[in-house]
Structure formats: structure tokens, C-alpha cells
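Record filed below.
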Amino acid sequence: MNLLNDVEVDDKGMELNIKEYIRYLNIDNTKLHLSEDEFNSILSLHVAQGEMSSLTRKCNIKLYKMTIDKFPTVRAWENAKVEDKIIYYPTYRITNVRYYQIMLICMRIKGDWNVISKQGYKIPNILTTEEKSSIFDSFKAARYSETGFKFICNQFIKIMLTTGKELYQIDEQDIYKYREFHHDGKGNKELFNIAKRIASVPAILNYKVKQIDLKENNVENENMEIRNIYFDYIERVNNTQVKSTANDSKYVSRLFVDWLWDNYSHLQSYMELNIDYIEEFVYWNRLRISTVTNRIRTATMVNGELSKLKGFLKYLKRRELINYEIKVFISGSNCDFDNLRSRSSMIRPLPVPITDRIAIEKIINNMDESTGYLYIKKNMFKLMYLLALRPSEVISLKWDCIKGTKEILNLHVHRAKGFKERYIPLILEAIDIIKELQQFSKDAVPIYKEWDGEIAKRLFAYNDSVINIHALEVEFNKLLILNGLVNIDNRPKYTLYVLRKIRITTWLEFGISEYTVAELVGHGDLESLSHYIISKEVRIKNASKVFYTFYDDLLIQIKEKGFYENNDNAIEIEKDYAEELIKDLTEIENKNINVVALEMAFNQFPELMLPLPCGNCLALILNDESFECEKMKIPCLECSDLKVDETHIIIFDNFIKKNKSRKLHQKEKLEGLVNRANAILERLLKFYQVKFEFSKGVVDIRFKQLFNEVFPKRGRKGVKK
């Protein structure tokens, strides 16, 4: 055969790609160079399909001969250095890579990642129409940009060429190996996720970010079993905890693992741990000197590290890696492990001011959602705020998280802290958010999450993954800074957890029993609620709005029996309970009974204390989100419908008597509080004049008499001569 002439390709061959055509020609995988006729026949397909010119074909044939002259055997070509394997044509910028690729397709030579991963070489089309269609459909379902479709196809082809595998045989190790030669984090992750969709990679697997030399990786313990389990724990912590908490958890676990190596290097596994080792470590850690202050650390810091150690031990317990004695030692809310804590008085944090609560709500509602990622983040924040969810809980929510009957819908948190689950009655706003998200992520593939250990379709799936806690934390911090909610050092005033804190505080302020709130938010005991401080008076005033028995009964029914009973009457009662609960939670969310704002209004606008106000005042305060006290007009002074009588005058007289703090503020020289008290008195003065029709002189005398009743003048006692 004259190798300078094209070989005619029949009609059937014209419909095939190069891989299919090689099979059509019955070329086997013998570890020998292709014959001249075989190579020319394959090149002729490229020419016939318009992918190669006749001149390029001739150059490739000359390169084919040069390759055989340099490497007479395939083994010699395989064992050559990377830079020697590629031969360049002396005149044109053409190499023998085309022949190398064809040899790989014929499976006559072992693939070299260093050659295949090089950029600038044309990638042969070896994917079938069905395979391309599968990849393209996966691209659309994952909401990836279609501009990257050809790129991903080429990455699959490179792996197929190097490994000799079919598309559906590629596994996660092939992708990770390819990653060593192709440094494109986003592209490699998309490649991995598409492989999951076309079922070549198991759905249980998530893409592992390439490990870099982080401090947490520099563990000194040389026992491989102990090291590997430690690294598994590090990966779980990175995926399930906010950055600051994760750093603490990783630090303490690494400290413990290295301490074991320094003191008990004979240990072969965590199963050989005993209580004495743990107590000894805790005592050693308690006496450690801080590298920052050069002093022994505070009890609070030591106890925080003890909690992180307990978390590591619980992880080992869940994986059945510690013995029964240790399991008992760390189990329960008042376990023996907790007795190792240093005793110190607990300082409870201050509640979030009402102005900051309103600001945070506005920030979330006004958040940009122009991209898919921003849309997901915004709705994550919303559900955390509305339902007091933990960040890890919202991230792991399943796609079908709405449970219950058609009339009574609940959010099913299938995996809460401590491996618990719970149900939260849903208000309409939360239902709308979840249903919209279900539509958005309806084509998502099941995603494995370390938090619950399940392969499940996720509510917040986007691009075949779920945004992690760190990304949420960064976005929330950025929002706070942009909107001025910062400390004096211009850092965010709150952490992401404040969304949960606000909701818990709000529920408690509106009189919901501590037991009920603990059940709604997944607290194992009432002591946990001590971090959410509210005014005792506020809760007492709102107690009448709460049906304690109803809430308790409802949650017990959900926990023990669910919503479905054989007794029809029992079902109707439960439905009524749930409907009332949803109604009350909705009222709280709509601020129809915002007593915190009402208390502020009474202090700033005492005329609102009238038993039967006209309604305009309360409407402005309770329903208008833009309400700001210093800008609000004097509602009752301008209301002609307001009727007053002597009983109302007595109410205001008593209020003036209670306003004795003004004099105390003057004594303490608290200028800001004095100005505020004076402003209230000025409003009262005007109110007495307008509504009670007193002259200014009469009001001045009346106020003076009222103050004298509170602060009577006391003359000096006579001194006997």
C-alpha cells in the first residue's frame, strides 16, 4: 500500500468515531507497533471526516516511521523519559502524539499521565453519541454552564486514554490521579460530580479537596491506624462545623493524639484507651501554660477544650472504635467525663438588641439572589432565622423534609445534634421557601453528607454539592460588614449562630414554655436555654398568650406517636393543636404581638399607656418595619378620636411618679439618660396640655407636686445646743 495515498472509507465507517472504527477494522491489542496499513487506514478516517488534511496525514506517517526507528519496541517507548517519547516533525509544528493516542485507543501501549495531560494537543473523539448525551444531560441537571461541556468531555477522554477504561468504568481514584497532573480545582470537582451522575462514581462519595500542608496534618503520632482515623475526623469537622469551632476541634484532637504518642506510644488503636489516660491528659492540659499570655489558661478556656475532646471521643464511639468502659464514661448529659470540668461561674451573654434583630432580618430579606449560589445562601439564612436551625442542620436537610398531613405541615430535621430528630411546625412563609427550593433542586443527585452519614437528595443542592458552613459564615460576615453591624474594630458584631439565637429568644419572650422551646430547637436540657436571656417581666406579660398544655401535648404526640392515630377524634384534636401552634408562631413572625417593641414604645411614648388607644399608634409600632422612635410623629396628640377622662389622668400621674430615674441619672451625671428622660417629660407636658386641656402653668405645678411625693424634702434635724 502506498502510505502517501488515502484509504477509502466506506459509508458505515464514516458514521463511527475513531475508537469504534478501530474495532470495526478488527485491530487487536497486541503489544506491538501498528502496521503501516493499519495506521494509514485509521488516519484516512480523520481525513474523510474532515478532521485532518492530506498534508497533515503525510506528516503523521513520517512521524510514525521516526517513532519506530527510535523505539523499535513498544516497551522501549513506554520506558523512555517523557521528553523523549514525543518526537517533533522537523519542518512543521506536528508531533507523534496522534500516533501515541491511537496506540492507546488500541490498548497497545501503557498510558503516561505526563504525556496525556499536556495542553495543546488535539483530543480524539472516542465518546459515543449516547455517552455524550449522558454527559450533556448531567450538565444541565447539575446547572453547570454549558460552555464547559466540551472541556469535561475532553477530561473524560484523557482519563480513558491513559487508563484504557470505558467511560462508565472510571472511578474516583482515576479522577484523583488525573488531578495530580491537571491543576484546576473547579474543573476537577465538576468532572467528579458528572461522573457521579453518569454512575461511574458511587453516589456515596463526595469530592475530596486536595490536601495541602496544613497544621492539622502535621500530627506527630506515627501509628498509621490512629493517624488515619484522626484524619477522617478532621475531614468530618471541616464539613460540619463553622471555621472557628472546627479549628478548636482540630487543635484539641491533634493535641490529644500527639500526647498519646509522647506518653503511650505502645497503643496500637483507640480501642486500647482507658479512663486513666483520658484523665491524665485532661490534668496535663489544665496545667499547660498559654503561649500568648505565658500564664495558666482560664477555666473557661480549659472547659471549652474539654468539650472538644468529648466531641472527638463521641466520634470514636459512633464508629465503634473505643471500648465499652470509655463509652459509658462519656455518655449522658451528666456523665463521669463532665466531672473533669473546671468549676467556674458562668457569665451569660447579653440578648441581641431589638434594633439589631430588625436590622439582621432586613439584611437577610434584602440579600442579593442574582446567582444560584446567592439564592441558596439567602434561603439557608432565612430558614435558620425562621426555624432556629443550626447551620449543620440546614445544610443536611433532605429534599423531602416536609412531613405531616396536608393540613398540618412540619419540617423534619432528620439529623440534629446528638443524633436526634425533631419536627418543627411550619408557618406559611417557611413552607413557601421550602417548596420553591424543592422545585429549584428537583433534578439534584443524591449527595452523601458526613453529618448524617446518608446518601440522600438534599434541599439545598446546587451544582451537585451543598454549600459548606464556612462559605455561609463568610457570606454572613460580609453582609454584616457591608451593613455596618460591626464592633469598634470593624469586625462583624455577630456570628452566623445569631440567627438561631434571635429566634429562640423571640419564642421565649413571647411566653412559650422553656420545655417547648427546648423541644423545638433540639436542646437536650433546659439548662441550655440559659444562654438566651430575656426579661422576666416580658415573659410574664406574654404568658396569657401561650397554651402550655397544648404545646407540651403536641410535641409529645409528635415524638411518641406521630400525627396518625386510629381514633378519628384524636386526629382532630391534634390537628386543632397544630393549627393553633402554627397560628401563634405566625403571629410572632408577623410582629402582631411584639411586646419588646411595645415596651420600648411605652418608654418613649407614654401616651400609649391609655387603656383604649385609637389603634394608629400601635399599628405604626407593631406592623411598620421602618419604625424608628426618634422619627415617629406624636400619634395620640394628633388623633381627634381619642377620648380621655379622669381615670386616664390618674394613670399618667402614676407614670410620672415612677419616672424617678431622671433624678438618679442627674445625680450620676449620665447625660444621655437625662436627655432621654427630659424628652419623655416634654411629651407628657404637651399631652397634658392638649388632651387634658391643662394650661402650661397648671401642668408645671402638677408635675412639681408629683415629684415631691416621690422625693419629699427632708430638713436637717435640729442640733441641741
Q: What stands out?
A: The chain is about 55% helix and 5% strand.
